[in-house]
Structures are given as C-alpha cells and as structure tokens.
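User: Batch of two.

Assistant: Item 1 of 2:
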Amino acid sequence: MITFEESGLKPEILRAVADMGFENPTPVQAETLPLLHEPPTNLIALAQTGTGKTAAFGLPLIHRIDASNKKTQALVLCPTRELCLQITKDFENYMKYLPKIAVTAIYGGAPIHTQERQLNKGSQIVVGTPGRVIDMIKRGALDLANIEWFILDEADEMLNMGFKDDLEIIFNKTPSEKATWLFSATMPPRVESISKRYMKDAQRIAVGKRNEGAANVSHEYYVVQARDRFEALRRIVAVHDEFYGVVFCRTRQETTDVSSKLISMGYPAEAISGALSQQQRDHVMGRFRKGQLKLLIATDVAARGIDIDDLTHVINFQLPDDPEVYVHRSGRTGRAGKSGIAVSIIHGRQKNKIRELEKMTGKSFQVKQVPTMDEIGRKKVVALAEEMVNAKVKGKAVDSILTEVYLMMEGMTREDLIDQFTKWAYVQALAGESAASTDINISAKGGDSDRPERGNRRERRDSGDDGGGRRERIRRDDDDGGGRRERTRRDDDGGKSFTRVDFNIGSEQNLNPGRLMGMINEVMNNSSINFGKIEIDRENSAIDIDSEHASNVAVSLEGMQFGAKQLRVELSDKPLGKVGRPSKGGSSRSSDGGAGFGKSRSGGGGGYSDRKSGGDKYDKKKGSFKGGKSKTGYKGRKK
C-alpha cells in the first residue's frame, strides 16, 4: 500500500494531511489516490460509511482543481445537510494551505441568499444537497455547464430518500464530458441503474464485499417478547457505563415514546426526527456531538448524514425492513479505527432475519442475555465503590464533616464498613426499581422456541368446545351504510379492561374477524392477547384489545402492508358502535412490536376460522396470507 508521501499529492495537501494526523491511507483511499496520475475517468466505489470516503474523493479532487480558474469545476452531491457541512469542513481542512481554492456548501434550511452570494464570489468546488442545487440552478446562481468532476456521495441514501428525479435533472445539466465518481455503502439495483445510464465504462473498486458489514463492528442480538423491548433497551444501556450511541426506531412517534421514557428515568437522551425544525435539530445534534447526550433516538431518515466517529453502539430498537438499511445503521459505529457494537432487539419470530443478515454481511451475530436488574445493581455498586475510592475532595467544609462521620462510625470494623457500604450502594442503585431479578430473555435456540404450544392455540378456536378456556362466537349484522359490520363477542371478559384500536381497512379489502385477529397474532407472537368486540365496515374497522397489549399492537401494525393498502392504526377512547377512521399518518402511543423484513412466517388467525370466507391460510412459497375467497393478504411493511 502506498503512503501519502508516495501518492504524488501536492505539498500543500500533504502538509494539511499531516496536520490532521493522517499517516497512511485507508484501503479505499489507497484505491483512489492513483487517479491523480490518470486521465479523468468514471469511478464506482463501494465502501462502508466511516472508511475514509471523503478523503478518498476529496484529496484527488483538490489536487486536480485549477486554482487560477474561479469557475465551478466540481460538484459534490450528498443526501443531507449534515453530510454536506461535514464534507465542506473536511475539504477546508485539506486545502487550508491552498487559499486560492474555495468551496461552498449549499443546502436547505439556511438562507438561500447568503449561499447565492457565496457562489457569486466564485467557488471551484460546490458541495450541495439535491434540492438546493436545483434551486440554485433555477436562480442562475449555479452553472454546471463547465464542471469536470461530478461526485455522488452516499448515492444509495439519496435514492432511498427519493432523489432519483432530482439526480436525473442535475445529471442533464452537466456536460457529457466529465468524470463522475459514485460512492456508495451498498449497491442496490437503483444505484446500478443510475451508473449504467450515466457512467459509461466506469472503473469499479470495492473495499470489502458487497453489503459486507464493517470490520470493526461486532453484532449482537437479544430475544425478548415485544412488550419487553423497551425494558431490554434500558437494561442494555444501563449495563454499559461508557454508552454513546444511536437507537434506531421505525416511526417519529416511536422515537418520541422511547426518548420520553428514557428521559423520565434520568438517561441523557433526546429524539431526532423529521418533526424537528432545522434549529431544533441543530441544537440536539450539537448536544450529542459534545457528549452532553449519550443516546440519540432516531428514525433512519433523520439519522442520514450524521457523521460521528466515537459512537460505541448502534441499537436497532426495531429491525429495519430492508437488510441493506441494517448495513447503513451498523456502519455508524466502529469508525476511524475504533471498535463498535451493533445491537438488535428482536422477538422470537425474527431469528430467521438474523440468519439472513449473517449471510448477507458475512458476520457472525452473537445472541446475548438481557441483564437482570440484580446484575445491573451489582455493576452499579462496583462503579460507586470505584468512584468513592478515587474521590479527591479537600477543604475545611469536608474536614468538619469528617469529624461527625468519624464519631458516627466509631467502633465499626473495616469489614463492617464495606458490608454497610455495599448494602447502601445496592439500594441506591436499584432505587425505584421493581421486580429487580426478573428475567425477560426468551430462549434463542431453534426457530420457534417462543412459539405458543399447539394446545394453547386449540383453546382459542371458535369450535364450540372451549376445552376449559373461553368460548367466542362471531355475529354478523347488516349495515345500512352498504358495507358489512362484523363483530366477535366474548361471553365472559374476566373483568379485563379493553382499549379500542382503529384500522383503515375493512370489508372492501376482504377483511374479516379471523383475518384481523390472525394479523395481530402473527405480528405480536403472543397467545395471551384477549380480544373483545370487532366491527368491520366497508373501509374501516375496529377491535377491542385488552389494554395491556393494545399499544404494542398499534405500533407493530402501523405502516405495514395489507394487500394494496398501507395500514394506519390508532388507539381510541371511543366505545365500539361506530367504526372510526384513523387520521392520516396515525400512530400509537407505545414503542414495542415490529415485523421482520416484510415477510410473514406463520399462519395467521391464532386458530380462529371464518367458515364463510374460508379463513386465512399461510402460503409458505409466497410468504403471505390468503383467504378462502380472497386474494388480499397481510404482507408486512412496504420496503
């Protein structure tokens, strides 16, 4: 591998690189530095986030810029404001001894006139986000007609964020004779399509295998019931004293729920999502970068562009639908030569997804046990003891207190003091905790170790023989509104409280009570959920679910795909009697649940059957449900 000194970089750049503490190129940099000595060419580089990609394209680019020409010679396109600013900052460091070369960052969320004035002064390099670049082109402030280099950083992320049309507009504004460099952590078909259309005869380099996990990241997973997901998260964080990481959630509401619970328990956490204004986002990110926050709770969209080298952990509160998203998430830790841990909290039916990820990333995933509160208490006691031993406080106030303490403890032996301190510290460590020794782990052996026993399922069937369990029957009433109203009624609710859950699907989607209950049982993987009344109209439906599980059900099903419709699910305090319509973008008030990568793995209905419709049957080959007369089935979340 060549060194920076041997690369042929300009002396001014070498000096700047030395100031930054860089000694030897990273693997991806070693692959791109030879471009210094070759005619401009198209390049496709596959490399993980955190492998030094910015320097990999930045150093060769700055080396080739003509400082005497003030026109824009290079455009660097990236998906987010944060990444845009980070790239610009790095470029400024690389060229600090080249004062005649200027770089300008253009991005949304900042005054456009200020950025326009900077462009008018002349910048050889422009770093921007797609939307703002197009705005500047339309305003006549940015002319791409003469650029020689067009660089796309995190191309897969830009396409995931829906910038395909913007990319095509920008490509069409650039000259045909230019060098296009595309950098991506993954290479999905959409990225391949862009490269084939706009990058003829491109060289390809790859650091590691396609979609391979980062080398410095270890992968762990914990298996718990969906309802214990937050408790597992809390305990995992509690047992790691130096935790500094990002917790990934599926929805904005989930980030709010998780962060609110953590904050109420005293954890330095904050949520970041698309609901924040740019000013609020900057404030949160500023605190996180300074270490004032140790946990950043984020959606995938909100986390794009976050570039922090010191993260110890990435936690998947919910596994993503797309395995490639997992690669992106885990790549945010273990950077700059440091080690990191990617943690996934799953339920029993998602263990096959772990196997898929192992196969795709080429990494081994280690199953771990969620620590009990006893174990956490023990760790905290040791930490308190260490803190006490290393405490160094002097002063007259302390001296006066010591006299009182000496008198109080007079007559206690060394063993007595240690014994009493340990008892006190343990009580302090677990203050306010309940069920301190509760074990919430599920066995990770086999694929169905946490699946309800078959006998339990039989007790749930509408067979007329409750086997000592409960008996349910289905009653249909004609609905004057032209739709069909269906409900199940429990003879004895056992005194349980129920919460109503509203859905935006109904008989028009061939929904029936068996299919609705089956969908819930499939996702929740729980045989103890009790159902009350069910009402189904033409376009909407509602079901009473015991309050213990209602929130988890709502979060787990929100956003999933049922036939051609994406589910909207809401909790309601209205009694059943008229089916409500979930509001647009409806969400729930909890943070548990989760499906896998969009494929159902077991039959729905929990044993229920609807004799008229034929019920739901699981098609193993297709990985979806189908009813006796219906072609519509539950398929999980959209990718």
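Item 2 of 2:
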Amino acid sequence: MPIIFDSKSHPHDHDALMLLYQRDHSRQALAEHYRIVDALALREVGRAEALMREHILTNRDVLIRALGTNRLGAAAQVPGSGGQLLSY
C-alpha cells in the first residue's frame, strides 16, 4: 500500500486510512477483488489487468474525495512515481 501523507508531509497511519473507507466502498472493493482473482484463476490476463487498473483508479479517486483535493496535493507517494498520483 502506498504511504499517504497529509499537506504537512506527516504520514497517515493505518487507523486514519481505515476511516477514509466507508462500508459501501469496502463491499465494492471486495467484489472487485473477487473479479480480479476470478480472472487470474481463468488465466484471463488482459481482463485481470483491466480490472486491476480500474480498481486502483477507483481507490485513488476515493482517497482524493476523502482527503480533499487541496489536502492531498502530491501526497500519494508511490516508489518510482516522483510523488505524483498515478494515472493510466
């Protein structure tokens, strides 16, 4: 999981991140996980990749909404990303 920082470069801890996710989103994410695993089990690599990209972008959008665009800034630190939010 990428490390998420606030606007003062303080990392959010696990508990703070968990508060960002509502029950409905958790159910949606779990359903997405099942679809990804099913595609992998069927060796449908292209479908698994597409589902994973969609899952990543959806969760990025959830974090942006939860933290607020101004508070997030370039805070999603992913190794090799240069501090930028990833997009495909």
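The longest strand covers residues 3-4.
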